[in-house]
Amino acid sequence: MSDTIAPALIAIFAGSALAVVLFIPFVALSYRRRGGLSPWRIVGWAALLVYALAIWSYTLLPVPDAAGYSCAGVQLDPLQALTDIRSFDTGGPRALLTNPAVLQLLFNVLLFMPLGFLVRILFGRGVIVATSLGLGVSLLVEVTQLTGIWGLYRCAYRLFDVDDLITNTVGALLGSLLAVAFVRRRGSGERPATAGTVTAWRRLLGMVCDWLFLVVLGGAAAIAWRALQLYAFGVPVGGLNLTVENLLSLWLPLLIQLGVVLATGSTVGEAAVLLRGVDGRMPPLAGRAVRFAAGIGGFGVLAAVEGSGLLLGAFVVVSVIAAFRSAGHRGLASALAGMSVEDARTRDA
Question: Where in the sequence is the signal peptide annotated (predicted)?
Answer without folding.
Answer: none
